Amino acid sequence: MRAPSGYLLAARYRLFEPVGRGGMGTVWRAHDELLDREVAVKEVRLPLVLDEDLRAELCVRTEREGRATAMVAHPSVITVFDVVTEDERPWIVMELLRARSLEQLLQDRGPLPPREAAEIGRQVLGALRAVHAKGILHRDVKPSNVLVTNERAVLTDFGLAALEGDVSITQAGIVLGSAGYIAPERVLGAKATPSADLWSLGATLYTAVEGRGLHGRRTAAAALAALTSGEPIPMEKAGPLTPVLRGLLMIDPAARLDAVRASMMLARVAAGGVAEEPLSRPTGRAVRNPAMISVPSFNRRPQHRGLHRAGSTPVSAPAPVAPPPSPMPQPRMHRRPTEGVHRKPVERAPEPHPFMRFVTPLIRLVLPRLLWPRELRKRG
Protein backbone atom coordinates (compact mmCIF):
# COMPACT_ATOMS: atom_id res chain seq x y z
CA MET A 1 0.00 0.00 0.00
CA ARG A 2 1.39 3.39 -1.00
CA ALA A 3 1.88 6.00 1.71
CA PRO A 4 -0.49 9.01 1.58
CA SER A 5 0.62 12.57 1.03
CA GLY A 6 1.56 14.29 4.30
CA TYR A 7 2.77 11.02 5.86
CA LEU A 8 5.46 11.54 8.54
CA LEU A 9 8.19 8.94 8.16
CA ALA A 10 10.24 8.02 11.23
CA ALA A 11 8.83 11.10 13.01
CA ARG A 12 11.18 13.20 10.86
CA TYR A 13 10.53 13.15 7.10
CA ARG A 14 7.25 14.72 5.90
CA LEU A 15 6.15 13.39 2.48
CA PHE A 16 4.74 16.06 0.17
CA GLU A 17 4.23 14.79 -3.38
CA PRO A 18 5.51 12.03 -5.65
CA VAL A 19 8.17 13.08 -8.14
CA GLY A 20 8.63 9.68 -9.77
CA ARG A 21 7.10 6.24 -9.87
CA GLY A 22 8.38 2.87 -10.94
CA GLY A 23 7.52 -0.79 -10.80
CA MET A 24 9.26 -1.24 -7.46
CA GLY A 25 8.55 2.00 -5.64
CA THR A 26 7.80 5.72 -5.54
CA VAL A 27 10.10 8.69 -5.05
CA TRP A 28 8.67 11.44 -2.85
CA ARG A 29 9.64 15.04 -2.38
CA ALA A 30 9.86 15.38 1.38
CA HIS A 31 11.01 17.74 4.09
CA ASP A 32 13.48 16.85 6.83
CA GLU A 33 11.90 18.51 9.88
CA LEU A 34 14.98 17.89 12.02
CA LEU A 35 17.53 19.61 9.74
CA ASP A 36 14.99 21.81 7.89
CA ARG A 37 15.92 20.78 4.34
CA GLU A 38 14.25 19.22 1.32
CA VAL A 39 15.08 15.60 0.57
CA ALA A 40 13.95 12.79 -1.71
CA VAL A 41 12.50 9.66 -0.12
CA LYS A 42 12.42 6.38 -2.01
CA GLU A 43 9.51 4.18 -0.94
CA VAL A 44 10.49 0.64 -1.86
CA ARG A 45 7.63 -1.79 -2.50
CA LEU A 46 8.66 -5.44 -2.20
CA PRO A 47 7.13 -8.10 -4.46
CA LEU A 48 3.95 -9.62 -3.02
CA VAL A 49 5.14 -13.17 -3.78
CA LEU A 50 7.80 -12.97 -1.03
CA ASP A 51 7.08 -14.48 2.33
CA GLU A 52 7.53 -12.57 5.58
CA ASP A 53 10.94 -14.09 6.42
CA LEU A 54 12.34 -13.12 3.03
CA ARG A 55 10.83 -9.64 3.26
CA ALA A 56 12.49 -9.11 6.65
CA GLU A 57 15.80 -10.38 5.27
CA LEU A 58 15.58 -8.00 2.31
CA CYS A 59 14.86 -5.06 4.60
CA VAL A 60 18.02 -5.79 6.57
CA ARG A 61 20.02 -6.14 3.37
CA THR A 62 18.63 -2.88 2.01
CA GLU A 63 19.63 -1.03 5.16
CA ARG A 64 23.14 -2.50 5.02
CA GLU A 65 23.78 -1.67 1.38
CA GLY A 66 22.11 1.72 1.70
CA ARG A 67 24.56 2.68 4.44
CA ALA A 68 27.43 1.35 2.33
CA THR A 69 26.26 3.52 -0.58
CA ALA A 70 26.18 6.52 1.75
CA MET A 71 29.95 6.09 2.22
CA VAL A 72 30.62 6.48 -1.53
CA ALA A 73 31.72 10.04 -2.22
CA HIS A 74 31.42 10.65 -5.97
CA PRO A 75 29.77 13.52 -7.85
CA SER A 76 27.85 11.09 -10.07
CA VAL A 77 26.51 8.96 -7.20
CA ILE A 78 23.33 10.12 -5.52
CA THR A 79 23.98 11.07 -1.89
CA VAL A 80 22.15 8.81 0.57
CA PHE A 81 21.31 10.48 3.88
CA ASP A 82 19.42 7.78 5.75
CA VAL A 83 17.83 4.33 5.50
CA VAL A 84 14.65 3.66 7.48
CA THR A 85 12.61 0.50 7.92
CA GLU A 86 8.97 1.24 8.63
CA ASP A 87 5.74 -0.57 7.87
CA GLU A 88 7.78 -3.71 7.07
CA ARG A 89 9.56 -2.11 4.10
CA PRO A 90 12.70 -0.05 3.57
CA TRP A 91 12.75 3.68 2.83
CA ILE A 92 15.84 5.42 1.43
CA VAL A 93 16.35 9.14 2.11
CA MET A 94 18.48 10.85 -0.56
CA GLU A 95 19.42 14.30 -1.84
CA LEU A 96 16.78 16.06 -3.92
CA LEU A 97 18.06 17.10 -7.35
CA ARG A 98 16.36 19.61 -9.62
CA ALA A 99 16.97 17.58 -12.72
CA ARG A 100 15.33 15.55 -15.44
CA SER A 101 15.93 11.89 -15.95
CA LEU A 102 17.60 10.70 -19.11
CA GLU A 103 14.30 9.09 -20.06
CA GLN A 104 12.48 12.43 -19.82
CA LEU A 105 15.31 14.13 -21.72
CA LEU A 106 14.93 11.68 -24.60
CA GLN A 107 11.17 12.22 -24.66
CA ASP A 108 11.63 15.99 -24.88
CA ARG A 109 14.62 16.23 -27.23
CA GLY A 110 14.83 12.92 -29.02
CA PRO A 111 18.11 11.04 -29.60
CA LEU A 112 21.22 12.71 -28.21
CA PRO A 113 24.38 13.47 -30.22
CA PRO A 114 27.12 10.86 -29.72
CA ARG A 115 29.40 13.33 -27.91
CA GLU A 116 26.71 14.29 -25.38
CA ALA A 117 25.73 10.66 -24.82
CA ALA A 118 29.41 9.74 -24.37
CA GLU A 119 29.86 12.42 -21.70
CA ILE A 120 26.80 11.17 -19.80
CA GLY A 121 28.08 7.60 -20.11
CA ARG A 122 31.54 8.61 -18.89
CA GLN A 123 30.12 10.14 -15.71
CA VAL A 124 27.75 7.23 -15.04
CA LEU A 125 30.60 4.78 -15.58
CA GLY A 126 32.64 6.72 -13.02
CA ALA A 127 29.79 6.24 -10.55
CA LEU A 128 29.67 2.51 -11.27
CA ARG A 129 33.41 2.15 -10.76
CA ALA A 130 33.12 3.97 -7.42
CA VAL A 131 30.35 1.72 -6.08
CA HIS A 132 31.96 -1.43 -7.49
CA ALA A 133 35.11 -0.57 -5.54
CA LYS A 134 32.95 -0.73 -2.37
CA GLY A 135 31.54 -4.14 -3.34
CA ILE A 136 28.13 -2.73 -4.33
CA LEU A 137 26.30 -3.61 -7.56
CA HIS A 138 23.60 -1.34 -8.92
CA ARG A 139 21.78 -3.98 -11.01
CA ASP A 140 19.22 -1.55 -12.45
CA VAL A 141 21.04 0.93 -14.70
CA LYS A 142 18.52 2.42 -17.13
CA PRO A 143 17.57 5.87 -18.50
CA SER A 144 14.99 6.56 -15.78
CA ASN A 145 17.67 6.05 -13.08
CA VAL A 146 20.09 8.59 -14.59
CA LEU A 147 19.42 12.21 -13.62
CA VAL A 148 20.89 14.89 -15.89
CA THR A 149 21.54 18.45 -14.73
CA ASN A 150 23.40 21.29 -16.41
CA GLU A 151 26.61 20.31 -14.65
CA ARG A 152 26.56 16.54 -14.15
CA ALA A 153 24.86 13.19 -14.63
CA VAL A 154 23.91 11.29 -11.47
CA LEU A 155 23.12 7.61 -10.99
CA THR A 156 20.19 7.03 -8.62
CA ASP A 157 17.93 4.31 -7.21
CA PHE A 158 20.40 2.22 -5.24
CA GLY A 159 17.59 1.04 -2.99
CA LEU A 160 16.12 -1.14 -5.72
CA ALA A 161 19.59 -2.42 -6.58
CA ALA A 162 20.07 -3.68 -3.04
CA LEU A 163 17.19 -6.12 -3.46
CA GLU A 164 19.03 -8.14 -6.11
CA GLY A 165 21.97 -10.47 -5.51
CA ASP A 166 20.51 -12.59 -2.74
CA VAL A 167 20.45 -16.33 -3.35
CA SER A 168 16.91 -16.63 -2.00
CA ILE A 169 15.64 -14.18 -4.63
CA THR A 170 17.21 -16.19 -7.43
CA GLN A 171 15.74 -19.40 -6.05
CA ALA A 172 12.32 -17.75 -5.97
CA GLY A 173 12.62 -17.07 -9.72
CA ILE A 174 12.49 -13.28 -9.40
CA VAL A 175 14.68 -11.09 -11.59
CA LEU A 176 14.47 -7.43 -10.62
CA GLY A 177 15.08 -4.83 -13.29
CA SER A 178 13.66 -3.45 -16.50
CA ALA A 179 13.24 -5.39 -19.72
CA GLY A 180 15.83 -4.47 -22.30
CA TYR A 181 18.35 -3.32 -19.68
CA ILE A 182 19.02 -6.63 -17.89
CA ALA A 183 22.25 -8.37 -18.85
CA PRO A 184 21.77 -11.70 -20.70
CA GLU A 185 23.51 -13.73 -18.01
CA ARG A 186 21.16 -12.38 -15.36
CA VAL A 187 18.13 -13.40 -17.43
CA LEU A 188 19.59 -16.91 -17.56
CA GLY A 189 19.85 -16.98 -13.75
CA ALA A 190 23.54 -16.23 -13.27
CA LYS A 191 24.80 -14.17 -10.35
CA ALA A 192 25.02 -10.42 -10.84
CA THR A 193 28.53 -9.07 -11.44
CA PRO A 194 30.05 -5.67 -12.25
CA SER A 195 30.12 -6.77 -15.90
CA ALA A 196 26.31 -6.98 -15.83
CA ASP A 197 26.13 -3.32 -14.78
CA LEU A 198 28.37 -2.45 -17.75
CA TRP A 199 26.00 -4.24 -20.12
CA SER A 200 23.08 -2.25 -18.69
CA LEU A 201 25.10 0.93 -19.20
CA GLY A 202 25.67 -0.03 -22.83
CA ALA A 203 21.93 -0.60 -23.33
CA THR A 204 21.23 2.78 -21.70
CA LEU A 205 23.66 4.59 -24.00
CA TYR A 206 22.22 2.75 -27.00
CA THR A 207 18.79 4.11 -26.12
CA ALA A 208 20.22 7.59 -25.60
CA VAL A 209 21.93 7.78 -28.99
CA GLU A 210 19.50 5.76 -31.12
CA GLY A 211 16.27 6.96 -29.53
CA ARG A 212 14.85 3.46 -29.05
CA GLY A 213 15.41 0.43 -26.86
CA LEU A 214 17.68 -2.43 -27.77
CA HIS A 215 15.86 -4.51 -30.43
CA GLY A 216 12.61 -2.79 -29.36
CA ARG A 217 11.59 -5.73 -27.18
CA ARG A 218 9.19 -5.25 -24.27
CA THR A 219 10.28 -8.24 -22.16
CA ALA A 220 13.69 -9.45 -21.00
CA ALA A 221 13.12 -12.90 -22.54
CA ALA A 222 12.32 -11.39 -25.95
CA ALA A 223 15.38 -9.15 -25.76
CA LEU A 224 17.55 -12.15 -24.85
CA ALA A 225 16.13 -14.18 -27.74
CA ALA A 226 16.95 -11.32 -30.12
CA LEU A 227 20.49 -11.05 -28.79
CA THR A 228 21.22 -14.76 -29.04
CA SER A 229 19.73 -15.06 -32.52
CA GLY A 230 22.93 -13.76 -34.08
CA GLU A 231 21.32 -10.71 -35.63
CA PRO A 232 23.64 -7.68 -35.68
CA ILE A 233 22.65 -4.84 -33.41
CA PRO A 234 21.43 -2.02 -35.68
CA MET A 235 23.35 1.21 -35.08
CA GLU A 236 22.32 4.07 -37.33
CA LYS A 237 23.12 7.17 -35.24
CA ALA A 238 25.85 5.96 -32.89
CA GLY A 239 28.71 7.21 -35.08
CA PRO A 240 31.97 7.28 -33.09
CA LEU A 241 30.17 5.66 -30.16
CA THR A 242 29.66 2.40 -32.10
CA PRO A 243 32.85 0.58 -30.90
CA VAL A 244 31.98 1.35 -27.27
CA LEU A 245 28.42 0.07 -27.60
CA ARG A 246 29.49 -3.11 -29.38
CA GLY A 247 32.09 -3.77 -26.69
CA LEU A 248 29.66 -3.21 -23.80
CA LEU A 249 26.82 -5.23 -25.37
CA MET A 250 28.81 -8.43 -25.86
CA ILE A 251 26.77 -11.45 -24.75
CA ASP A 252 29.76 -13.22 -23.20
CA PRO A 253 30.74 -11.40 -19.97
CA ALA A 254 34.37 -12.52 -20.38
CA ALA A 255 34.59 -10.84 -23.82
CA ARG A 256 32.80 -7.70 -22.68
CA LEU A 257 34.58 -4.36 -22.54
CA ASP A 258 36.06 -3.68 -19.09
CA ALA A 259 35.40 -0.51 -17.13
CA VAL A 260 38.87 1.03 -17.53
CA ARG A 261 39.00 0.72 -21.31
CA ALA A 262 35.36 1.77 -21.67
CA SER A 263 36.07 4.90 -19.62
CA MET A 264 39.01 5.83 -21.87
CA MET A 265 36.99 5.28 -25.05
CA LEU A 266 34.03 7.31 -23.76
CA ALA A 267 36.36 10.16 -22.78
CA ARG A 268 37.81 10.22 -26.30
CA VAL A 269 34.40 10.36 -27.94
CA ALA A 270 33.21 13.04 -25.50
CA ALA A 271 36.26 15.15 -26.40
CA GLY A 272 35.39 14.96 -30.09
CA GLY A 273 37.75 12.16 -31.10
CA VAL A 274 37.28 8.53 -32.00
CA ALA A 275 36.95 5.64 -29.57
CA GLU A 276 39.91 3.70 -30.95
CA GLU A 277 43.04 5.85 -31.26
CA PRO A 278 45.37 4.62 -34.05
CA LEU A 279 48.88 3.67 -33.02
CA SER A 280 51.31 5.90 -34.95
CA ARG A 281 55.03 6.52 -34.68
CA PRO A 282 56.02 9.86 -33.17
CA THR A 283 57.19 12.34 -35.75
CA GLY A 284 60.53 14.09 -35.63
CA ARG A 285 62.41 11.23 -33.99
CA ALA A 286 64.89 8.93 -35.67
CA VAL A 287 63.97 5.25 -35.56
CA ARG A 288 66.85 2.84 -35.23
CA ASN A 289 67.17 0.05 -37.73
CA PRO A 290 66.35 -3.24 -35.97
CA ALA A 291 69.11 -4.95 -37.96
CA MET A 292 71.69 -2.58 -36.43
CA ILE A 293 70.67 -3.34 -32.84
CA SER A 294 72.91 -6.04 -31.38
CA VAL A 295 71.24 -8.47 -29.04
CA PRO A 296 73.48 -9.69 -26.20
CA SER A 297 73.91 -13.40 -25.71
CA PHE A 298 72.38 -14.86 -22.55
CA ASN A 299 74.08 -18.30 -22.74
CA ARG A 300 75.20 -19.44 -19.32
CA ARG A 301 78.47 -20.88 -20.65
CA PRO A 302 80.61 -18.31 -22.47
CA GLN A 303 82.96 -19.29 -25.28
CA HIS A 304 86.14 -18.69 -23.30
CA ARG A 305 85.10 -20.93 -20.41
CA GLY A 306 87.40 -23.91 -19.89
CA LEU A 307 90.20 -22.74 -22.20
CA HIS A 308 92.67 -22.78 -19.29
CA ARG A 309 92.31 -26.52 -18.85
CA ALA A 310 95.02 -28.89 -20.05
CA GLY A 311 94.42 -30.53 -23.40
CA SER A 312 91.87 -28.00 -24.48
CA THR A 313 92.15 -26.57 -27.93
CA PRO A 314 92.09 -22.82 -27.84
CA VAL A 315 89.64 -21.14 -30.08
CA SER A 316 91.40 -18.67 -32.27
CA ALA A 317 89.92 -15.23 -32.17
CA PRO A 318 89.17 -13.53 -35.45
CA ALA A 319 92.06 -11.40 -36.63
CA PRO A 320 91.43 -7.70 -36.29
CA VAL A 321 90.86 -5.91 -39.51
CA ALA A 322 93.52 -3.25 -40.09
CA PRO A 323 92.22 0.16 -41.05
CA PRO A 324 93.10 1.39 -44.52
CA PRO A 325 96.40 3.32 -44.68
CA SER A 326 96.06 7.03 -44.51
CA PRO A 327 98.12 9.28 -46.78
CA MET A 328 101.35 10.57 -45.18
CA PRO A 329 101.41 14.32 -44.59
CA GLN A 330 103.98 16.20 -46.68
CA PRO A 331 106.64 18.17 -44.70
CA ARG A 332 106.46 21.90 -44.91
CA MET A 333 109.49 23.59 -46.42
CA HIS A 334 109.02 27.01 -44.91
CA ARG A 335 107.31 28.63 -42.00
CA ARG A 336 103.96 30.28 -42.44
CA PRO A 337 103.95 34.05 -41.96
CA THR A 338 101.29 33.92 -39.28
CA GLU A 339 102.60 30.88 -37.43
CA GLY A 340 103.64 31.60 -33.85
CA VAL A 341 102.18 35.10 -33.79
CA HIS A 342 99.79 34.14 -30.98
CA ARG A 343 102.66 33.23 -28.68
CA LYS A 344 103.75 35.66 -25.97
CA PRO A 345 107.12 37.31 -26.83
CA VAL A 346 110.04 36.75 -24.46
CA GLU A 347 110.90 39.88 -22.47
CA ARG A 348 114.59 40.75 -22.37
CA ALA A 349 116.21 42.07 -19.19
CA PRO A 350 116.90 45.83 -19.26
CA GLU A 351 120.49 47.02 -19.47
CA PRO A 352 121.94 48.13 -16.04
CA HIS A 353 122.65 51.80 -15.42
CA PRO A 354 126.33 52.83 -15.92
CA PHE A 355 126.50 53.98 -12.31
CA MET A 356 125.38 50.56 -11.13
CA ARG A 357 128.08 48.88 -13.14
CA PHE A 358 130.61 51.02 -11.25
CA VAL A 359 129.12 50.56 -7.77
CA THR A 360 128.38 46.82 -8.06
CA PRO A 361 131.94 45.56 -7.38
CA LEU A 362 132.22 47.85 -4.39
CA ILE A 363 128.95 46.62 -2.89
CA ARG A 364 129.97 43.00 -3.32
CA LEU A 365 133.28 43.69 -1.59
CA VAL A 366 132.06 45.74 1.40
CA LEU A 367 128.49 44.62 2.20
CA PRO A 368 127.30 41.10 3.11
CA ARG A 369 124.98 39.33 0.64
CA LEU A 370 121.86 39.85 2.77
CA LEU A 371 122.21 43.63 2.35
CA TRP A 372 122.65 43.58 -1.40
CA PRO A 373 119.92 45.16 -3.59
CA ARG A 374 117.29 42.76 -4.97
CA GLU A 375 118.41 43.12 -8.58
CA LEU A 376 121.96 42.32 -7.54
CA ARG A 377 120.93 39.25 -5.56
CA LYS A 378 118.95 37.96 -8.58
CA ARG A 379 121.98 38.24 -10.84
CA GLY A 380 124.09 36.50 -8.24
From TrEMBL:
Positions annotated to bind ATP: K42
Chain ranges of the Protein kinase domain: 13-266
Pfam families the record matches: Pkinase
Keyword vocabulary terms for this entry: ATP-binding, Kinase, Nucleotide-binding, Serine/threonine-protein kinase, Transferase
Pro residues biased stretches: 320-330
SUPFAM superfamilies: Protein kinase-like (PK-like)
The EC number(s) this enzyme carries: 2.7.11.1
Region (Disordered): 296-349
InterPro entries on file: Kinase-like_dom_sf (IPR011009), Prot_kinase_dom (IPR000719), Protein_kinase_ATP_BS (IPR017441), Ser/Thr_kinase_AS (IPR008271)
GO MF annotations in UniProt: ATP binding; protein serine/threonine kinase activity
Keyword DNA repair: no
Biased composition (Basic and acidic residues): 336-349
Protein name per its UniProtKB record: non-specific serine/threonine protein kinase
Protein source organism: Streptosporangium carneum
